[in-house]
Amino acid sequence: MSHRQLLNRSAGPRSLLSLLRPSLTRFYSSSVTSKDSAEEVAAEELPVTFVEDDGLEAEREARIQAARNKSRLLPQHRNMLHNALPYEQSQSWIHETVKYKRMMVGRYGLDGSKVDPRICYPTKQEALERSEYEKVAFPHTLQEMMAVNRKAKQDKIAKIKTREEEIAKKMEKLDQWTADLNARIAKKEADARAAKERKDRLVEEVRRHFGFKIDPRDERFQEMLAQKEKEDRKKVKEAKRAEKEVKMMEKLKKKTANLEKDASKEEDVDEDKK
Question: How confident is the model at residue 214 (pLDDT cuts 50, 70, 90)?
Fold first, then answer.
């Protein structure tokens, strides 16, 4: 039966649609199937490098960066080595302090620190406290401090000059002091020699007193030696007293002569006045 006969025999448009529906369904299904299979073949033939997947690409980049990090440094230390901000997010309460943020701005700049630059400026309270501190710690003006500093320098120079003058005066007396020191040393040496000679003389006198050779450690020798030393000290003391009396008499005579001379001068002046 031909298509024309079928159309003629159909009761209307609905019966025609029901007849054509199976054919249309098979046509469209076959076309869709062929299109999907073509896309699958194209996807299979497409290289892997052209497959766009953000998650896989990020993971791959992370693996590459981890493989590059041969220093074994911690991330924050590696960032500091490359002059970058150590932490992207705050890790401690210290990272939220004003002091830390100011330090980050000073080290990494405005862009690198990611900190609001207004935090670097003091607040009104901080400015007031700083002003009060400066008033207490530095009560003098700049001119007053310069004057004080100038006076301190002048006093220091004057002190150095005075010290140099004293040293110069003492250097002038150095020869006299050296002579006096040598004289005192010579006197001590002479006194030591005299004491030794006196000791030897007394020992010899004790030996002559006994008339025979005696051990110096003997008690009789020691007693006689002590007696001789006592007598000798007495003689020395009397000699010093006599010398002192002689000096006093000479001093009195000299003083008396000066008084008599002054008195005679006064008498001559009185006579001249008369």
Answer: low
